[in-house]
Design goal:
The two termini are 60 Å apart. It contains eleven helices and 31 strands. Among the domains are: 81 residues, no CATH class; 130 residues, Ribonuclease Inhibitor (Leucine-rich repeat, LRR (right-handed beta-alpha superhelix), Alpha-Beta Horseshoe). It is flat and about 80 Å long. Helix 7 links the parallel strand 28 and strand 29. The chain is of the alpha/beta class. It binds 2-acetamido-2-deoxy-beta-D-glucopyranose (12 copies). One of its GO terms (cellular component) is extracellular matrix. It holds the Pfam family LRR_5. Keywords: Leucine-rich repeat, Membrane, Repeat, Transmembrane, Transmembrane helix.
């Protein structure tokens, strides 16, 4: 056994040396036969060529360095002020220039962009948009222009027969002229939020017969003409939060919206709603009425008999002056989530009102002045979350919880509890998920969780706990077979210098959150009793790059995800992950890494050994960064040069290092922070180990075993060979990808 273990280490080391041989074509993780501007990182996203020049201090677009096959061009967060024409043959699909300093959108700049699908121009200084700007883009689907001082638009805003998604929120528009949408008839989603519109008149949306989602939050609306949505029969989602709509004729306004599924009227100055308000909205699923003054609300009457699809009803902070009638929710038997937080309520009323809601999954009774709880909570077979936080429940605790014997999910978070008696949960043997986060508990009573033998998830975030879970809060010698997830984030834990952190009872735990726990180090045996962890969150601690500081990883053979972001790591060696073969997600963002060649090693490790740069979170654009409404500002992996390094630095130009793409243009380093991607390119760091002859390597592997070839070795050798073949195939598939892609697209169009 020991021999195999030794071999294992040896194997990983060998694999590390060996596999790069097939990858001399790679740079920054991908093959580079497509052109890439010097300042940018380029890679494939699925089969598409991404040119990522975001946050690179550019003042103009590197037009003449772009590949004609660029699929996504990301220029977010630069200093670009003007746009010129793109090269005629470019096949760009998505153009992102958010958070720059553009002032105009002219036709010239987008001329000939026939393939363009998505444009993100948000967060600029744009005051003029040429309605004909996208005439050539005959497949245009999405345009983002939010956060620009557009202010005034005369006539049609844009001309596009295909555009489906338009975000023009926060554009200081005070009026939507009658022709505004005339030539955008395919729109399905429009966001007009946070424009000072004040009124909505007549027929502006009439041409938008495909409209499904309309957002008009915070538009200072006081009057909405009754006919404004009269042709919006396809509208499914309507948001009108944060306006002053006390004088609205709701039955007329909503009367034609028979397909409406989601309606948000939060904080809209509504004081009363008549009985027929929603009578034609028979498909309503979510209704948000929170933060209105519905003092004498008769819930039953408002919901009427037609809202029988309603699943979520939010009546938080509505100053409802009970009693809620017994029939209040009689018509809402499908209701899954009910928010009554912030209304003064009494237990007996609740008991009656909630009776018809057996399907309820989430009930929010936070801050309701409840001194007692209804006796009938055991009728809720499906209740997942009962939130009774912020109620004056403190002293009579145990008794109050007594009726909750059948409860499976209880959220008592943020309830100012400083003590929980040892018997509090002794009868709640069905409990699966217990949330006690946000209470200043400091310590836990012996036996507190003893009877919770069905527990799957325990959340104790921000509880001021110093000692991680003690053995004595559980039954002695009992393994909690179902307990899989423990969340202890935000506790100032004191970790022992040696020995396991958690007791044996928790040996089945797979997900452990220890983020923001003031941890400076974890000993090698820290997870001895919880060595089957698959997900470990250690973000926001103070773990350093000292010798052995990550040795706790050696035990975690099942580990798949680890979050080490925002710690105090200055360097990291891929060798520390040698015993975590299943690892597929490593987050190192926000550490004070020094720019050294270990970073290039990590890069090669992700790319060659793991076969996927995505393993290293922040190494390149994530999927969520390159979609509509994606992250405008990315979380990159950074390293920094120290002052001495910076002063003595001369960047290698045209230096060819196997596996890296060199810079072509002379450049100077003026600032210390580099993304890992850029650093790996400019560093000139050699690939880790010199290329060795594979045959010699395998021979060495066998040799190591003194002539006896153990089955372990054979398995390892086969694995090694297979990996190489698979990865070689991968590489070739990727290199073929762009041609295939353009071919497909040509066929499509
Ligand atoms: C843009 O330029 C200004 C000054 O020229 C500079 O202060 C600012 O940091 C630049 N912004 C970016 C994102 O590079
Ligand atoms: C951006 O470029 C300007 C000059 O073009 C320079 O003054 C500034 O320091 C640069 N900022 C960064 C963050 O590199
Ligand atoms: C814009 O819409 C108006 C009204 O439907 C129509 O008369 C006009 O021809 C359209 N313009 C273009 C360029 O499609
Ligand atoms: C509600 O729907 C009915 C039948 O579909 C229709 O006759 C009535 O006019 C609608 N109400 C409003 C206010 O549009
Ligand atoms: C729960 O624990 C208490 C002691 O805390 C014990 O008396 C009781 O029998 C246990 N079991 C059940 C099902 O309540
Ligand atoms: C727990 O198990 C150990 C060894 O298996 C035994 O010696 C000890 O008495 C047990 N304790 C209890 C409380 O059952
Ligand atoms: C965090 O740990 C340090 C010692 O490592 C200690 O001095 C400090 O008080 C702890 N912080 C908190 C909030 O407990
Ligand atoms: C981890 O899982 C394996 C297989 O399921 C099991 O044999 C082993 O005992 C587990 N480890 C612990 C500490 O429970
Ligand atoms: C990080 O480590 C350095 C020394 O390596 C130390 O000076 C610094 O205080 C640490 N930072 C934190 C937040 O613990
Ligand atoms: C800066 O980095 C160089 C090279 O890595 C190193 O020799 C030097 O000690 C560092 N200086 C400081 C002040 O950390
Ligand atoms: C680097 O090589 C490219 C092409 O091989 C050449 O155009 C460029 O001038 C070279 N740069 C320098 C600084 O030598
Ligand atoms: C470098 O980045 C870190 C965060 O990653 C930031 O705190 C620091 O201010 C940056 N330094 C410079 C010189 O830009």
């Amino acid at each position: 056994m020991k021999n195999i273990c030794l071999n294992m280490e040896r194997f990983s080391l060998l694999a590390f040396i060996f596999i790069p041989i097939t990858f001399t074509y790679g740079f920054n993780g991908e093959s580079f036969e497509l052109e890439c501007p010097d300042e940018c990182d380029c890679h494939y996203f699925r089969i598409n060529w991404v040119t990522d020049c975001s946050e690179s201090n550019l003042t103009e677009i590197p037009y003449d360095e772009l590949s004609m096959s660029v699929y996504i061009l990301d220029l977010n967060g630069n200093n670009i002020t003007t746009l010129k024409a793109f090269p005629g043959d470019i096949k760009m699909r998505r153009l992102q220039i958010a958070n720059n300093r553009l002032t105009r959108v002219d036709r010239e700049a987008f001329k000939g962009l026939e393939y363009l699908i998505d444009v993100d121009l948000s967060g600029n200084n744009i005051s003029y948009v040429d309605p004909e700007a996208f005439l050539d883009s005959r497949g245009l689907l999405n345009v983002e222009l939010q956060d620009n001082p557009i202010s005034v638009v005369d006539g049609p805003f844009l001309i596009s027969t295909t555009l489906q998604y338009l975000d023009i929120s926060s554009c200081n528009l005070s009026e939507i002229n009658p022709q505004f949408f005339d030539n955008l008839t395919s729109l399905t989603t429009v966001d007009l939020s946070n424009n000072p519109l004040k009124t909505l008149d007549g027929s502006v949306f009439d041409v938008l017969t495909s409209l499904e989602t309309l957002k008009l939050n915070d538009c200072k609306l006081t009057t909405i003409s009754e006919s404004v949505f009269s042709t919006s029969i396809n509208l499914k989602n309507l948001e009108l939060a944060g306006n002053q709509l006390s004088n609205t004729n709701w039955p007329e306004l909503l009367g034609k919206m028979i397909r409406l599924e989601y309606l948000n009227l939060r904080k809209s100055g509504i004081t009363s709603l008549s009985e027929d308000t929603f009578s034609n909205c028979t498909n309503l699923v979510t209704l948000i009425l929170a933060d209105n003054e519905l003092r004498d609300l008769d819930v039953a009457a408002i919901l009427g008999s037609s809202v029988d699809h309603l699943e979520l009803l939010d009546l938080s902070n509505c100053k409802i002056q009970g009693p809620i009638s017994g029939e209040a929710f009689a018509n809402a038997s499908r209701l899954k989530s009910l928010y009554l937080s912030g209304n003064p309520l009494f237990a007996p009323d609740l008991q009656e009102a909630l009776e018809p809601l057996p399907k309820l999954e989430r009930l929010f009774l936070s801050n309701c002045g409840l001194r007692n709880l209804p006796d009938n909570f055991n009728v809720f077979d499906n209740l997942q979350e009962l939130d009774i936080s912020h109620n004056p429940l403190v002293n009579v605790f145990t008794k109050l919880l007594a009726p909750l014997e059948k409860l499976e999910y209880l959220n008592m978070g943020y309830s100012n509890l400083s003590y929980i008696g040892p018997d509090s949960f002794s009868k709640m043997t069905s409990m699966k998920r217990l949330v006690l986060s946000g209470n200043d508990l400091l310590s836990l009573e012996a036996g507190l969780f003893g009877n919770l033998t069905q527990l799957t998830t325990l959340e104790l975030e921000l509880c001021g706990l110093k000692r991680p879970l003690n053995a004595n809060v559980f039954f002695k010698n009992l393994t909690y077979m179902d307990l899989r997830e423990i969340r202890l984030g935000g506790n100032p834990l004191v970790i022992p210098d040696s020995g396991p952190v958690f007791p044996k009872q928790l040996s089945q735990v797979t997900i452990l959150d220890l983020s923001n726990c003031n941890i400076t180090s974890l000993n090698a045996d820290a997870f001895k009793n919880t060595e089957n962890l698959t997900e470990l969150n250690l973000a926001g601690n103070r773990i350093k790059s000292e010798y052995d500081s990550l040795s706790f990883l050696e035990r975690l053979h099942q580990l798949e995800k680890i979050n080490l972001s925002n710690n105090n790591l200055t360097t990291i060696d891929p060798q520390v992950f040698v015993n975590n073969p299943k690892l597929h997600s490593l987050n190192l963002i926000g550490n004070p890494f020094v720019c050294d060649c270990k970073i290039a090693e990590m890069w090669d490790w992700a790319n060659m050994i793991k076969g996927n740069l995505d393993v290293l979170i922040g190494a390149k654009s994530a999927e969520r960064d390159i979609v509509v409404k994606g992250n405008k500002k990315k979380k990159h992996l950074y390293c920094h040069y120290n002052e001495t390094q910076l002063r003595n630095m001369s960047l290698p130009i045209n230096k060819t290092v196997p596996g890296r793409r060199p810079f072509m243009k002379p450049r100077e380093l003026s600032f210390a922070n580099r993304t890992w991607a850029k650093y790996v390119r400019e560093s000139g760091c050699e690939p880790v180990v010199k290329i060795l002859r594979p045959v010699a390597l395998v021979a060495e592997l066998f040799d190591f075993n003194d002539g006896h070839i153990s089955s372990g070795t054979i398995v390892l050798a086969i694995t090694l060979a297979t990996t190489t073949i698979v990865m070689t195939l991968r590489l070739f598939r990727r290199r073929d990808a762009p041609a295939e892609d353009t071919e497909n697209n040509r066929k499509l169009r």
